[in-house]
Amino acid sequence: MDWVVLTAAVVSMALGSIHLWRANVVIVATDIADTTTDYEIKTSFD
Hints:
The chain is mostly helical and 46 residues long. 96% of the residues lie in helices and 0% in strands. It has one helix at 2-45.
């Protein structure tokens, strides 16, 4: 019975880390987009 609990824990950890990884990718992509937009706004004033 212990291996069932262990397997469930490993699977939930794996799914959780994939979810976090995807969330981080979205955050980084958003930051890059914001930085690019800021850069374009600054250069357009020159």
